[in-house]
């Protein structure tokens, strides 16, 4: 399974086929050809162990000195969920549909009550009070929409609390009409990717420059990178056992809060040297050299980072970012290895 995942074969059925046809698969499996259901059940039962196995591979590389987590480059990429964006519904549409279904259920109940005699003749020895299929379908949809509304409303309250609003204000927070819920994979979100809007997740990866090993990764529902710098630095330390010394990242990760975190004024031993772009650079545009003289006393952290990347050293270090992480995320997401998730729900 590990070999299959590393070569872009994720489906249990495709793994079974490779075990029958592909020599490397046959050798690794010692000639065994388990059924795809067995492979799928094995993955479900041992998913926690398999996750740890990939981390053990990274630990082995670190132990033998094949890689050192010194400088790392971060990038985020949108990956399609195992769900269609057409199975999503906005909060405003939920309220409209809920009212519509209530009316339809009411009408169907009235029709059922008026047709008791016909129901008795049709159902024969059965009680005759079973819900008609049409009514049962609508009541099921109505129940699903009620659950979806509660989830979206809870998200709105959590968002308000995360923005620093008081408990009373957070409790009263209401979703926006455009807030979405997907009935196939509720944890996924509609996000804008390179090829338009997708129903998916935002995957984060930290890559070291020597062997292009992913030394930290996470999957989030956030639509941008703004709040992912701190979690990713912590993920690198947790998954690789080493705290990075330098972090290279594009302007999506740039904010006063993120730069303050990297400085770690209260804990100097945890400081990480950052090279974070402060704005987008147009194609063919060259960065202007840093102006001579000290920065103003009231310069923000973003201003200082901008000046840092305008120096020869800062410019050279940051320029390496696209050659470290973008080939890895581009290869994974677009062409060879990982175009979309195979299972619904993030934990799977």
Give the ordered list of helices and strands: HHHHHEEHHHHEEEEHEHEHHHH
- Cα shape: flat
Q: Which bin fits the share of residues in helices?
A: 40-55%
How confident is the prediction overall: mean pLDDT? 79
Strand content: 5-15%
Overview of this protein structure:
- By secondary structure, the chain is α/β, with parallel strands linked by helices.
- The protein has helices at about 1-5, 10-20, 25-30, 35-45, 45-65, 90-115, 115-125, 135-160, 165-170, 230-240, 255-265, 300-310, 310-320, 320-325, 325-335, and strands at about 70-80, 90, 180, 190-195, 195-205, 215-220, 245-250, 275.
- Helix content is about 50%, strand content about 15%.
- The strands form two sheets. Strands 1, 4, 5, 6, 7 and 8 form a six-stranded mixed beta sheet that branches. Strands 2-3 form a two-stranded antiparallel ribbon.
- Helix 2 (about 10-20) crosses helix 4 (about 35-45) and helix 6 packs antiparallel against helix 8 (about 135-160).
